[in-house]
Amino acid sequence: MAKLIYSMLTSLDGYAEAAEGGIGTGAEVPEVHSFINDLFRPVGTYLYGRRMYETMVYWETAHTEPGQPPHGLQYARDWQAAEKVVYSTTLESVSSAKTRIERTFDPDAVRKLKEEAEADLTVDGPNLAAQAIRAGLVDEYHLFTTTSVVGGGKRFFPDGVRLDLDLVDHRAFDSGLVYTHYRTR
């Protein structure tokens, strides 16, 4: 059975998205990007909400941009190789291969997807992840914590949910970004 992983950049005060935008820096350096590439290369399926998909679809054509660094080219190849499921009631079509639209997030369908998958899955974006967390579907959490405190926005973890986690791994980068990996008990 595959694992469902939730991973995002988060501010020091726990926001995956600040009310006014950006949540800090540290992830754009090659060392961090290469680490993320290696960490998520085995992922077979990405679960996205519409907004996160619209951000990530950049990787469908990123390899065609002149001057793309090696870690960017590698991420584009890995992203293109994975399946993508976009949960949206408004998106009419997708512009990437290996992508399908689902109109609603169905926890039972995701459980079945986990059971049948040969490779791990990720759920990306705080809104969609909140649904998966509340349904008890998330097996692992990978946080990339910036050095910024943003004071508000969309939280990495949804309010009203209690989770007991085990720390599996951690790493601090020269950029100040801190990676922590937790597993549900």
Automatic annotation (TrEMBL):
Pfam families: RibD_C. InterPro entries: DHFR-like_dom_sf, RibDG_C, Riboflavin_Biosynth_HTPR. Residues 3-178 form the Bacterial bifunctional deaminase-reductase C-terminal domain. It comes from the Bacteria. This is Dihydrofolate reductase. It comes from Amycolatopsis magusensis. The lineage of its organism: Bacteria, Bacillati, Actinomycetota, Actinomycetes, Pseudonocardiales.
